[in-house]
Design brief:
Layout lengths: L3 E7 L3 E8 L2 E9 L9 H15 L7 E7 L6 H12 L4 E8 H10 L4 E6 L3 E6 L5 E5 L11 H17 L7 H9 L5 H7 L3 H6 L2 H7 L4 H25 L5 E6 L7 H11 L3 E3 L6 H10 L10 E3 L1
Parallel strand pairs: 1-4, 4-5, 6-9, 9-10
Antiparallel strand pairs: 1-2, 2-3, 5-11, 6-7, 7-8
Amino acid sequence: MSGVVLAVDLGKTKCRGALRVEGVEKELAEGAGAPGLAAAGGVAAAVAAIGDVVGRIDGLATPFVVSVGAAGAAAAPEAREQLARELARLPRVTAVAITSDAVTAHAGALGGLPGVALTAGTGAVATAIDAAGTFTRVDGWGPLLGDEGSGGWIGVEGLRATLRCHDGRGPDTALAAAATARYGPLDDLPRLFGQHENPALLAAGFAPDVAAAAATDATAADIMTAAGRALGRTALAAIARSGLREPVPYALTGGLVELGAALLVPIEETIGTAAERRPARGGPIDGAALLALDTTTALEPLMTRIS
């Protein structure tokens, strides 16, 4: 199999691709994300997002393997297989590997070793793998049914608090001014979100504002604490369901890591002694690159491959 790999992290916010030749990174590219494979039109949106990234990388003049961690892939296996078939038709693609972005995040964070990876971005999911290769997934149910503590969740909770303040149903909060600065007149929010193709992504853009306000605003602080506790409970559930022996190695990945202590402290307090946080070895792209060519990991049953 070719040692030229395009590793792709296809999230709901961004699509990032890395060209690696014999394990050495040569080029990076980034474009818009997609709403997830489980969403209506999810496969077409994923193909478009990945195709855009492919077009931004000059070094793909030789045959290559494309390996993708895609949001929604775990919940939509038929869509995952369809995406694999679509990508196999791209010029110079010799093989395709598709899995969930939660799987590539785990592989990147822990290098294929047992433990828990808690991924918090626009969505939220915890994944666990034990020494026997049994894979456990908790949450990642999408913005309507789950993703508690995620960027989308924080953003929505912040906007709900904003509208309660605006209506006089809730306390005054600095989030009202922050929301107005980001989105415009508050009375226009229903139309703005109703017409947006990815409302969770739009809401997630407000999460950094909520985190920034938490230092001085009680409403924002309560939202961030609730988010951290929700994420901590997700990790604890993954530990309990997996049967891993405590204290379990765990890594925290995803864009919400950058939100700082307002989120990280309640996560750590909730998890307590059940797990020991380890620095993530890499990100989802590193996991996608690992899984592109290595078919011997315990994560192999979760892969869809075409060669």
